Amino acid sequence: MNADHDNNNEFVYDTLKLLQLLESISTTTESTNLQSKINLYLKDLLSVEYVLIVPLLPTSEETQEGLIQVVNDNVLEKEFRFSVNTSDIENSSCESNDHPFKVTDLNKSFSEVIEMVVGKEHNTLIFDVKGSNSHQSIKSSNALFVCIAGDSSQREKFEFYVQHTFRYVLGHLLTAFELYEEKRVRFQCQNLLQVARRLLSKIGDLGQLLRGVMAEARELAKAERCSLFLIDKDTGELVSKVFDGTAITQQIKQSKEVRISGTQGIAGHVAQTGKLLNIHNAYHHPLFYKGIDEQTGFKTRNILCFPICDEERVIGVAQLCNKIDGFHFDKCDEETATAFSVYCGISIMHSLVHKRVQKAEARYKLSQELLLYHMKVPELDVANCLNRSTLATVIENFPNFESFDFCPRDVDDHSSVYLCIKMFMDLNFIVDFKMPEEKLARFVMLVQKGYRNMPYHNWQHAFSVTHFSYACMKNLKLIERGIITKLQGLSFLISCLCHDLDHRGFNNSYMTQSGSMLARLYSSEGSINERHHLSQAICILNDPGSKILDSLSTENFMESIDILRELILATDLANHFRISKDLKKLNPDNIQNHQRMLLSLLITCCDLNDQIKKWTTVYRVAELVYTEFFTQGDLEKQMGMSPNLMFDRKKANVPALQIEFLDAVVKPTYEIFVQIFPETSQFLETITENRQHWVEIKEKEETCCKNGNSC
């Protein structure tokens, strides 16, 4: 036997066995394995019935958490965690004069755990082992306790061997405990992420989500029951609409909700302070209300109550009762609850927002249904519209309909519907796309009803724009020459018909500055009016009675809607100017490679087609446009805003503004058009002629002003 003597002590220790212990523990950092080896070494060395190690894990300045995982070499199925007051440890250590003290010298929770683990029949001596400063996680000088079942008369011997052994193994053991805690926290995080995934899958139903929160909370903390309350913002009360399946009264089961004061009791205290509350003995706590236990027969032993918060405030409180496999909820449960509450808050807020969105969608859908109901087209009107003899008569009244020179503004609203159907027929879209004629008639009439009675942005404008697209396809043979496809042609015609649906007579700038409902919906995306027109168009296209694209394949339908979106948004001149440099590069040789860009140019030309008509039409349209502009300007003045010059009826010089409009917008756009289609060069001549008319009016007004006459 290789034995050594301590110079100041009568006890002898076996160096070889100690070296063998150090060798055996050097290959592992697993805390339970280390404890098993050290426990058995001390058990054999001291000839005692049991040895267990209780590391002290820091939780705060005042308390630490004791951890029991192994007795001798038996790893417990469930580890025990319990609070240990730092002052109690220090006092007990001082009173014992560096000798072991009994379990009864420490706080009750410690003694209860020890007695539960090893029984009451043993005399348990406790030795405190001091930690070194190298372990930053240890906040007090006590690193751990070693509990030994032995005779008090042997305490000096036990003390010697315990301290001597831990002089060599303490650092390695403390490192193992730190690694164990890190692994536990990492596992906890992974577990919480799985919980978060499950909770987020339930945000569509708040009741289901809250039941999921309670179930997850019970499982995470191993609690017998859970209560969950949300704060009523109006009353400040705590409200529960879902209930735990255990220990609730028949009265609660039958009620739809339970309300309690937001300032009273444990839940009220947590709601007010926003701080977690861990109560080890519920009946000894002044905030605990015993009445529920008396009514239900349920015995509340301990409580963990934690707040659920959003970004700004407490929105709810969760209350867990009775730790299943422990004396009370421990520090680990507190950490889990704190992290879990974050996911709860996120999930609940998303669910509430989701619910509001669902309600908004339902209201929107209802309003759309109501709108379509009032826009309902009588079946008799549909039948009349499809009457071949009536259609033929209307067509005969407008013999020059296919020409670019034709003026759509001379057509009455009734006849315009028949002529729209003629466009679809002439371009063979009804046959090619298997379009039911009654749906087409209903579609055209619904679109007509969708335009408001504005001075300029009305059905007459839509019909005029649509006619120009028809004239382009007929006269320039865009489809026959393969410049655009049939599907693109159909989408082009529909886009023109719908491009200003439900226009309110105000531009995008006014919509934003006035804080309109449309701006709230679309301002983040830009092109507020155009996005609304698109939305209305899709709404009509989705109405069962006017689904003219129903026969398209899914792929073709998606392409058609995509073109519809692009072209309606292209009618926003801001978008036109954004791509003007690319548009100028278009020519007869490359347009087939840039079909979408060509279509964007075409719909802008369609939107401006009034400017290539005869002078009487140009002048009449200008009056309509400025009627709308000045109405907007008047409203802007009422709002304390300074309107743009062209919207100010007192400052606007209409001839000068029209000349500027022709020079900056109309002429450059049609120059590109003529560059691609030289056969339309007369458009530029007409623009020049109309510009000259505005110049003459401008000069006449200036002469009148110089002569002192009214301008």
TrEMBL record:
Protein name per Swiss-Prot or TrEMBL? Phosphodiesterase
Listed GO MF terms: 3',5'-cyclic-nucleotide phosphodiesterase activity; metal ion binding
Domain (PDEase) ranges:
383-701
Q: Please list the residues that bind AMP.
A: H457, N458, W459, Q460, H461, D500, D607, Q658
A Pfam family of this chain: PDEase_I
Coiled-coil stretches, from where to where? none
The record's section on Gene3D superfamilies has: 3'5'-cyclic nucleotide phosphodiesterase, catalytic domain, 3.30.450.40
Q: Which organism is it from?
A: Chironomus riparius
Keyword list, A-Z: cGMP, Hydrolase, Metal-binding
SMART domains from the UniProt entry:
GAF (SM00065), HDc (SM00471)
